[in-house]
Design brief:
101 residues, mainly alpha, 2 helices
């Protein structure tokens, strides 16, 4: 009779451990997906930052009138498109990353 109780207790313990391991596995998969998304976004940001010197030199090179674009009063002299965006906004593409959900 004692052996029967022990086997039943072991089966219950095994089921409990299996549920815990399954839950942890699911959480790990979710964290891996989130980490991949963060990594993709960081790569996109790095690519944008690498292109920033070229964009800035292009904007400063277009300023042939000698205005200082770093002064607030000169901001009105930066050419705007019909949508109101500056050349900087048009030069920097937004990164596109697929969502893993």
């Amino acid at each position: 009779m004692d052996n029967a109780n022990t086997i039943t207790d072991m089966a219950k313990t095994q089921n409990t451990v299996y549920e815990i391991v399954s839950d942890l596995s699911g959480r790990q998969d979710h964290l891996e997906d989130r980490l991949s998304t963060i990594e993709e976004k960081l790569i996109g940001m790095g690519e944008l930052l690498e292109g920033l010197p070229g964009v800035l030199s292009g904007i400063l090179g277009r300023s042939s009138s000698g205005t200082n674009l770093l002064r607030p009063e000169s901001a009105s002299q930066i050419p705007h498109s019909k949508s109101g965006s500056t050349p900087l906004n048009k030069s920097l593409p937004l990164p596109t990353t697929p969502t893993n959900k």
